[in-house]
Amino acid sequence: MAQYPERKWYTGMLSTEDWWAVWIAVGFFFISLLNIWGIDLVGWMTYPTKWVFSPPEGGKGAIGHAFYALGKKYSVTAKGFYKGLGWWSVIWSYVIFGAALTIGAASMKWNVKKFIGGFTIIYFMTIATWFIGHHAFIAATKVNMHKYGLNFALNLGGGGSFILALIVGLIIGNFFKGFASYLSEAAKPEWYIKTAIVTLGVKLGYLPIKLSAMSQKLGKEAAGLTFDLFVAGAAATVVAYLIFWPGVYVISRKIFKLPRKTAAVLGSGISICGVSAAVATGGAVRAKPVVSIMVSALVVVWAVIELVILPGFFTHVWPGTKDPLVAGASMGMAVKTDGADAAAGELLDEFMRTKIEVETNGAVKWPEGIITASAVMTKVWIDMFIGIWAFVLALIWVYKFERREGERVPASEVWHRFPKFVIGYFFCWFFLLAIYFGPGQSGAPEAMPFLKTVKAGAVPVEKGMRKLFFMLTFMSLGIITDFKKLREAQFGKMVWVYFVALFGFIIPVAILIGYLFHHGMTLPNIAQYVK
Amino acid sequence: MAEEKKEISGTGSLTGEALEAEDVLAGAEEWSSTETWLVVGSFIAAIIALVIGMILVPTSILH
Fold first, then answer.
1. Which end of chain A, N or C, is less surrounded by CB atoms within 10 Å?
2. In Å, how far is A84's CA from the nearest CA of chain B?
3. Beta bridge mates, A69
4. Contact A263, A373 (CB under 8 A)
5. pLDDT tier at A275 (50, 70, 90 boundaries)?
6. Is residue A118 included in any domain, yes or no?
7. CB atoms within 10 A of CB A484
8. Is B40 inside a domain boundary?
């Protein structure tokens, strides 16, 4: 039974990225809730704003204000203190997040010294690209560029920073390989993105609270919409996966003549949540480790390519702003790896919101995060499927293909392969929803002072921490992505399987199913409530 | 293949240990009836899930 070692239900809680994403994100979430009792310990979280070298008279964009502590805007009890932090919030965030991550790294028995060195460099490179990406020429839209004295802007919103971080990471990963190797101990896109996904749960739970501050009706609409996405995402994911996996398996076996185990791992890697699924399936069917590793490498590289292509395609070619949630859900089903998917969803969210604002000349504005949520929702369900499918494949391989006498697959395998960060994501979401519907009285006017204290804590986590971890993800993803791998002869066949399966099968099916379950879903217009 | 790769912490992250790849791409077995059952069964389950889902999910195009 070497394949299924004896493990307790709590095995890995202090030694895996999955669990450490939960501890760190949920930990900061709980600290943020101290705001309910008037203690603001999260207002230091840094956030960028658009800037220009020479702000116009009476306009916006001074470099001195390019980074600020979110407590400056949202704190109820310590606004004055956090207002004074300004750029120092960058250092505060480095020290506090760095300490939290280092504890995690030490617990996972990584090389702590290398981690601290690597994280320091990655963090400050990330801040630098975040800063550059928020130059008004890149981030401003046609609607607000005049406030910065500009007559032209790239309209990329916050998405420009993500792309920039990815480009910087890719340059390091492909042209400065010694440097990339030094950074590798801290270049952990899966860990950063899983942490960001847990904070996305905070975002979802906070949405109704945010919109209630605008109007109680909007708050209820947001709560209903996110629940609809949850249900539609579940149905779409189950259908998509049951089509994806056998489709890719047949392509691999019949067209590319690959062996069963390799085809099974490829099927999971291309169909589900890439890296984790490839590793889980590789274990389930007892494929040689190299198969999972090769598929994982391909997953990362292709995910980056999808990340660059799909958000722009969905925004500017089809379905555009007519069906933003079809685009988000399709993205979630098509882009493999949690990191690239959530990041692509974030990019899509920025692009779509910017586009609708420009198209309507500011008459329509969508709340941030719902399109991202639609992408993550399908991905989260797919992640849940990993454990179940790995279990099914393990049973088939054990009892049908290999018939190992006397071997039993323990049911606990499903738990051990379950992506644990999903628990943190749902926990934060439902916890805030309980606050909203419980003491928050569904956003009733008399509960607004209470909800304002919840907001003071939630915003730094769902906005500052989440975006920072997305940025760290993009930078790290670039750093570990080596395009040379694609050129290697051994990868050639798999590259083609992946290409054919992804563009000829996965993406079209994802779009079709996303359409069937999400077509016509609309986002609330918050234009009248925001500047 | 001398490219260095390795797997850590069960996460699938890539780092370094030399591995050969050829033997996992060659030597495809004959297609078996179990595979047919697995693939067809999965497609049938998908169709059933699609029909039920489109009836039950209020945001589907049937509603």
1. C
2. 40
3. A46
4. no
5. low
6. yes
7. 11
8. yes
Which region holds residue B12: left if phi is over 0, alpha if psi is between -120 and 50, else beta?
Answer: left
Domain hosting B43: range is: 4-56
Give the residue numbers spanning the domain of A198: 17-526
Do the Cβ atoms of A198 and A21 come closer than 8 Å?
yes
The nearest CA of chain A is from the CA of B44 a distance in Å of 9
A531 in a structural domain: no
A125 CB-side CA count, 13 A? 26
Q: Tell me whether residue A522 is in a domain.
A: yes
Q: Are A292 and B7 inside 8 Å of each other by CB?
A: yes
Alpha-carbon gap, residue A4 to A6, rounded angstroms: 7
Report yes or no on B62 lying in a domain: no
Whether residues A243 and B59 touch (CB distance < 8 A) is answered with no
Q: Is residue A6 part of a domain?
A: no
* H helix count then E strand count, chain B: 2, 2
Decide: residue A320, CB within 10 A, 0-12 exposed, 13-18 middle, 19+ buried: middle
| Cβ-Cβ contacts under 8 Å, A493 against chain B | 25
DSSP structure class, residue A399: I
Alpha helices in A253-368 (DSSP H): 260-271, 274-285, 289-316, 324-334, 338-359
Overall domain count for chain A: 1
Residue with tokens 């997953």: A299
In terms of pTM, does the model score above 0.90?
no
Confidence grade of residue A447 (pLDDT, cut at 50, 70, 90): very high
Chain A interface, best mutation among B25, B39, B43, by max A CB count within 10 A:
B25
A 10 A CB-CB count for A434 gives: 12
Cis preceding linkage at A319, omega within 30 = yes
In a domain, B63, yes or no: no
Cα separation of A176 and A167, whole Å?
13
Residue B22 lies inside a defined structural domain of this protein = yes
A476–chain B Cβ distance below 8 A for any pair: no
Mean pLDDT over all residues of chain A? 87
Distance CA A271, CA A378 (A): 12
Look at residues A172, A502, A155, A220 and name the one whose alpha carbon lies nearest to residue A358.
Answer: A155
Q: Is the dihedral of CA A336, A106, A475, A462 positive or negative?
A: positive
Q: How far is A19 from chain B (nearest CA, A)?
A: 11
Cα–Cα distance for residue pair A197/A462, rounded to 1 Å: 10
The CA distances from residue A289 to A16, A284, A401, A503, B23, in Å, are 19, 11, 19, 26, 12
Domain count, chain B: 1
Interface pTM, i.e. ipTM: 0.76
Indicate which of B8, B9, B54 best probes the interface with A, i.e. most A CBs within 10 Å of its own CB. Answer: B9
pLDDT value, residue A338: 65
Which residue of B7, B11, B29 is in closest CB contact with A190?
B11
